């Protein structure tokens, strides 16, 4: 009992320090869109903070096209009226090609996080930062604790009439899919020559469809303004996780200095850039180091943290990138058990469709056992009020969520280090 109390006091102090660091960085640099000087300066400060506590610290630059990640939205907005005109003119083949092209771009760029339109958007430089603490003996396993320091773009639909968020998205995209379906039916009718229809049904049907789809045009056009060009302060999403990485580095270094180093577990404390641009930073990190024995090992785990706002909503993801990537159920179950053994509420669940992805996905694709800890409602209809808004400030973060996250991460790493590998 005394040990648990001491752990909680230590985690509370670490959490307080992490929140103070987030406040300081936001006051100095503001929002941190990928490629901005503010984001690069933040990465530099994080590297400086890691350096006294790690055996080595690296800053790695990479190229990305951040505006491409949400660029599919405006492409679809442009394609919709063009396809609608073609539909009115019975040029169904062209309408179908236009709408299907937009859907394919959306599926690959957003549903699957592939880089299909990136080359047509401005290129910028991002910067990942990570520090490494080596164990006392040979490296048998590696744990990557990760967060991201770049800010999200403000979602205008969440700042203006947020109660209509789901409706605005559903109607706008629904009209686009309805036009695709109508164009497909019109194409089929043209192919069979309308001989299976009578009493002029096809023409009446398509005129009615065209009228309804034209009425829906304003709902599609407003999607153009879905995301702002401005960034959020990004305190909870996700600078706090990068600040927690600093605290963990300090914790494990102090333990080592006091005669209690990790025996065979290397710890990598990573802060990625470009997460809000489609996980571009973590993708670069894992593709660069997946075969690099000086960073990762054959047995590696990724404890990723994103949006740790509310302790009462703490959970671990078991899938990622809109459900297309499987995370580690075994690791999630272990983390939930650790949380409950410490008196915290926690559970595991797959990611909700259309809620995007986290950096754990890139770790999982590189062969690591990976989970993401989150602490906020994560379905589209119940996300926190500060998510992707200008209100994502330090005061929106529940200090208890930080304490619990740190406690679980420390216990996970120390339990892993205590295990004997076969």
The gist of it:
This protein is 48% helix and 17% strand. By secondary structure, it is an alpha/beta fold. The strands form three sheets. The chain has an eight-stranded mixed beta sheet with strand order 1-2-6-3-7-12-8-11, with helices on both faces. It has a two-stranded antiparallel sheet with strand order 4-5.
What does this 3D model show about the protein?
This protein is α/β, with parallel strands linked by helices. The chain folds into 2 domains: 2-65 and 124-152 and 232-418, Aminopeptidase, CATH 3.40.630.10; 71-115 and 161-225, no CATH class. Helix content is 48%, strand content 17%. It is built from 13 helices and 12 strands. It has helices spanning 2-29, 37-50, 71-88, 92-111, 156-159, 165-192, 201-215, 217-221, 235-257, 280-289, 329-341, 360-365, 399-418; strands at residues 56-64, 124-133, 141-148, 153-155, 227-231, 265-272, 300-308, 314-317, 319-320, 325-326, 347-349, 369-375. The strands form 3 sheets. It has an 8-stranded mixed beta sheet with strand order 1-2-6-3-7-12-8-11, sandwiched between helices. β9 and β10 (325-326) form a beta hairpin. It is elongated, with a radius of gyration of 24 Å. The model is unreliable at 196-200 (pLDDT under 50).
């Amino acid at each position: 009992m005394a040990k648990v109390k001491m752990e909680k006091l230590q985690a509370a102090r670490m959490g307080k320090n992490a929140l103070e660091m987030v406040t300081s960085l936001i006051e100095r640099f503001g929002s941190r869109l990928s490629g901005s000087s503010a984001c690069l300066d933040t990465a530099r400060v994080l590297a400086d903070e890691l350096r006294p506590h790690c055996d080595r610290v690296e800053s790695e630059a990479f190229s990305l096209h951040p505006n491409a990640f949400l660029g599919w939205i405006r492409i679809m907005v442009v394609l919709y009226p063009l396809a609608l005109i073609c539909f009115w003119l019975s040029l169904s083949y062209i309408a179908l090609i236009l709408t299907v092209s937009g859907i394919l771009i959306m599926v690959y760029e957003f549903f699957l996080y592939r880089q299909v339109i990136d080359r047509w958007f401005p290129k910028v430089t991002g910067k990942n930062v990570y520090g490494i603490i080596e164990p006392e003996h040979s490296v048998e396993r590696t744990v990557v604790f990760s967060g991201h320091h770049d800010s999200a773009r403000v979602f205008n639909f969440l700042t203006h009439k947020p109660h209509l968020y789901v409706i605005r998205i559903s109607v706008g995209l629904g009209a686009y899919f309805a036009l695709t379906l109508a164009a497909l039916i019109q194409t089929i009718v043209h192919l069979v020559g309308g001989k299976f229809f009578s009493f002029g049904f096809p023409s009446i049907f398509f005129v009615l469809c065209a009228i309804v789809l034209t009425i829906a045009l304003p709902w599609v056009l407003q999607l153009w303004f879905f995301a702002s060009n401005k960034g959020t302060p990004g305190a909870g999403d996700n600078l706090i996780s990068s600040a927690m990485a600093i605290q963990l580095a300090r914790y494990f270094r102090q333990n080592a200095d006091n005669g209690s180093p990790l025996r065979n577990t290397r710890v990598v404390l990573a802060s990625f850039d470009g997460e809000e641009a489609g996980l571009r930073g973590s993708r670069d990190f894992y593709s660069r180091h997946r075969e690099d024995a000086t960073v990762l090992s054959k047995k590696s785990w990724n404890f990723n943290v994103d949006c740790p706002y509310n302790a009462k909503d703490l959970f671990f993801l078991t899938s990622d990138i809109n459900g297309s990537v499987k995370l580690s159920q075994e690791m999630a179950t272990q983390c939930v058990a650790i949380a409950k053994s410490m008196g915290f509420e926690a559970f595991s669940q797959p990611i909700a469709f259309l809620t995007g992805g986290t950096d754990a996905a890139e770790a999982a694709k590189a062969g690591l056992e990976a989970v993401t800890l989150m602490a906020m409602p994560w379905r589209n209809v119940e996300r926190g009020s500060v998510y992707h808004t200008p209100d994502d400030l330090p005061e929106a973060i529940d200090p208890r969520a930080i304490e619990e996250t740190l406690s679980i991460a420390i216990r996970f790493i120390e339990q892993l280090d205590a295990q004997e590998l076969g």
